[in-house]
Protein: Putative plasmid replication initiator protein
Amino acid sequence: MALDTVDMDRWDVQFDAGDRLVRVSCEAMPKYRVPHGLDSDVTAALINLYFEQGEPDDGTLVTSVGQLIRLCGWHNNGNYISSLRESLKRLHTSSFTISGGWRDFPNRRWTHASFHFIERLSFSTPDQASTFDLRSIITLRLAEDIVASLRSGYVKPLDMEFMGTLTRPRTRVLYRVLDAARYKVDEPDMPLTHLEVNVLTWADQCKIPSQDEAWRVIKALNGPHEELKKKGYLRNVTISGRGRSQKILYEFSEDYSPIDPVLARRFRGYGVADGVARRLVRDKGRAFLIASMDRFDLLVKRQVLVVKKSPAAALMHLIAHPDDYPYPAQEASPRSAPARMDPLLVIPEVDHSAQFEGLSPEMAAERLIAYLNPHYRKLWGVAELDALRHAVASGTVQAGDQARAGITAVTQLKREAFVQSLRDELFQE
Structure:
């Protein structure tokens, strides 16, 4: 998708990947052309949104136009609203086919797949026109093959915080391709320190027009290379060889510590700052941190661990001193550990409205929908979500009240009644 502009409705790429020949093709409707340019930002945002919304089994995501534009790193203006709509349409109508390159990592199998990146798409509009605005709610379902690969860990979420600092669309695309290529297929947790690629082969993977001339590719990549070095992602880029045999050697910076949205979202939930989380990833590793947070959650749930000060402080202490904390009984450590500890914290009663304090009405509306949607995604559609978002944003409905009522209805098995009551309130004449 590195093409800035296109005039084609099909492309094919074929390349060697170790002992495999991988072929990727895309066929699009002539009206929309193949995905290109800013579409790369949209696919990255949707992948990260999937993780942020708890990895729904059916791949269904709910968001607003405003939220998705922010996730893409764009500005809230008419041009980007129009670009978003066109991108979603292209990703919904274009057909991708991957032969020999789609990985089911846990089962160590390669599969062949054909799919639309977005299998179903619907959104609310301010009138009967087909356009939408910042208020519009979008519901979409990712392709089953995309969901399976995301859940298996083969399609890796991107560091959107870092990606948002990149100014050029082509730099963001190159970052995505590099960040995927630097991880070995059979060792996805072991990033490469360097990567060497043939210039013309690399042009095909990045979708950069080359006319079979390496110098055109090198010229197109000069700006992105400089930006990725300036931002600290690349340590050095070396061009070697002549003509069609020219190669690019990428050396990745050891100081860059990626943090994916899964970790970022969980750490923020405890109140741990992104900078601290990034340092922990660098020092401790992703697997250890996920295991530590899982153990922390289970110990708190069983009231073996009780928080005195703050969840962030308690979690940081557990990460720094893992041997001081017991392992769950059914997951006993090889080393003996006490069956129970003295309480360390007092767990307050959950206040469902506290998360909205200090937020603007617009942000409170989006957080409310994200908070309730995992429980209600099958019971309401874009019309209800659009009306609810507008009611909270305009101040006629309080986000905290609806969050409390919605979660109470879940615990009392009265979700349908809550949705009907909300519907009556939002659509009363």
User: Anything to note?
Assistant: The radius of gyration is 24 Å. The chain has four domains: 1-156, 158-256, 261-331, 354-426.
